[in-house]
Amino acid sequence: MINQPLPEDFLLRMQQQLDKDEFNSFVESFANDSLPSVRLNPAKKEERFSQYEQVPWCPHGFYLKEKPVFTLDPAFHAGAYYPQEGSSMVLWHLLEIIEKEENGRALKVLDLCGAPGGKSTLIASFLKGEGLVVANEVIQSRARILRENIIKWGAPNAVVTQSDPSAFAKLPGLFDVMVVDAPCSGEGMFRKGEVARREWSVENTRHCAVRQRRILSDSWDSLRENGWLIYSTCTFNPEENEENLKWLMDEKRAEIMKLEVPDDWGITSVEISDGNGLAFYPHKVRGEGFFVALLQKKESPRSFKTNSAKRKPVKLPQELRSLIRNPDRYTYFERNELWSAFPEKYMNALQSMQKQLYLLHAGIPLGTVGRKGFVPDHALAMSWECSDNFPELELSEAEALRYLKGEPPVTEESLGRGFFLISCNRNRLGFVKNVGNRFNNLYPKEWRIRMRINEDD
Ligand SMILES: C[S@@+](CC[C@H](N)C(=O)[O-])C[C@H]1O[C@@H](n2cnc3c(N)ncnc32)[C@H](O)[C@@H]1O
């Protein structure tokens, strides 16, 4: 129940933006609760939600009847699905358009304003392990959450960075697609909580519009010629949406695309120059307020020199050879005893990024090889590429929740020593080490469930 009323100036502006009947239905829609929805991870095993109604523009998105307690569901911690607001999933549809225009070529995609990871994990699923997804977030605390969500999702071709948008201009032409899901005044989130309503002001919408222009122009050079910009906000006002895009088209050489969507999706087309944006109004779609547009860059960036410096061949320790399913697709590198695998095809791109950006995650961290021997990394357990070579211990949901709280499972004498993968409903959750008389729980401490679990539930 939200007590904070809708801001008066916001209502006055929307009254001018919508015709009278629409305005009344728009305002009424704010009395309804927001609709929970999830997007499934096609690389993991989660079937419970697929019985629900599908989000029309995303094959893996489903509207739920009520919001479950995600923290108490092991599949959520396994990255088997992501709770994502339905309107945002339209990104899938735009990626389909780009894929067609690019004749199915593998794409390098930058998600510039990435945390907590809704769009980045969607992009990762869309790419199916081909191409590259770089998920960036400038704010440190949020970047940590982004990293956690990306690791849980398990894509082998993802990089997480924590850099200012201007740092990406030092990688001219590196990306085929750039997603700017810009920080905004959040009018589309007014159904979700009081904070967005309280913090809204006309002045703040102007402040957001200026910041959005800066983000766009600072990072523009990282997009290649004929590359694609997907620009989105969760707000309704023209300053942060169509006016910003008109500004971009005046300042840079960019063309806006004409997007056609089926009428029964309930999406509103907003004319912009020769193309349009898509606006999601809560009285017309099943989802929150959202705006998105697709542009194509029509100018070349400064020339991008690929890093062709010879890489020294590395000798991969024997115990790391059988850890992943398709070892030949990857190059291996070691940093501070941690061995990682990275898609061979994008190793030069990774090296360029290492020079300009602050990297928090890249590819598949496999594990450390130190004095005590090999210790697998948690990210390996979550990866789509993790092989079946570790023995697996399948736990019940109650046991899995205890594991996720940091408790060790009970050992059976018949089990050999060494590392075991823990799974629940066939989704992997992490590692334990059997040291003979007990298991050591290797689930990352900072990700443990802290909520009290009622064993009678
Ligand atoms: C709308 S949210 C992104 C949501 C995310 N794309 C998703 O789908 O989960 C916008 C993000 O931009 C970040 N941000 C804030 N100021 C920024 C700036 N100056 N440059 C780039 N990103 C910024 C915020 O921290 C926030 O995480």
TrEMBL record:
Binding residues for S-adenosyl-L-methionine: 137, 164, 181
Designated name of the protein: 16S rRNA C967 or C1407 C5-methylase (RsmB/RsmF family)
Family: Belongs to the class I-like SAM-binding methyltransferase superfamily. RsmB/NOP family.
Superkingdom of this protein's organism: Bacteria
Lineage: Bacteria, Pseudomonadati, Bacteroidota, Bacteroidia, Marinilabiliales
Catalytic-site annotation from UniProt: 234 (nucleophile)
Cited InterPro entries: Methyltr_RsmF_N, MeTrfase_RsmB-F_NOP2_cat, MeTrfase_RsmB-F_NOP2_dom, Nol1_Nop2_Fmu_2, RCMT, SAM-dependent_MTases_sf
PROSITE patterns: SAM_MT_RSMB_NOP
Molecular function, one GO term: RNA methyltransferase activity
Any one GO biological process: RNA methylation
A Pfam match: Methyltr_RsmB-F
Species, as recorded: Marinilabilia salmonicolor
Gene3D superfamilies named among the record's database cross-references: 2.30.130.60, Sun protein, domain 3, Vaccinia Virus protein VP39
Coiled coil stretches, renumbered: none
Keywords noted in UniProt: Cytoplasm, Methyltransferase, RNA-binding, S-adenosyl-L-methionine, Transferase
Residue span, SAM-dependent MTase RsmB/NOP-type domain: 1-298
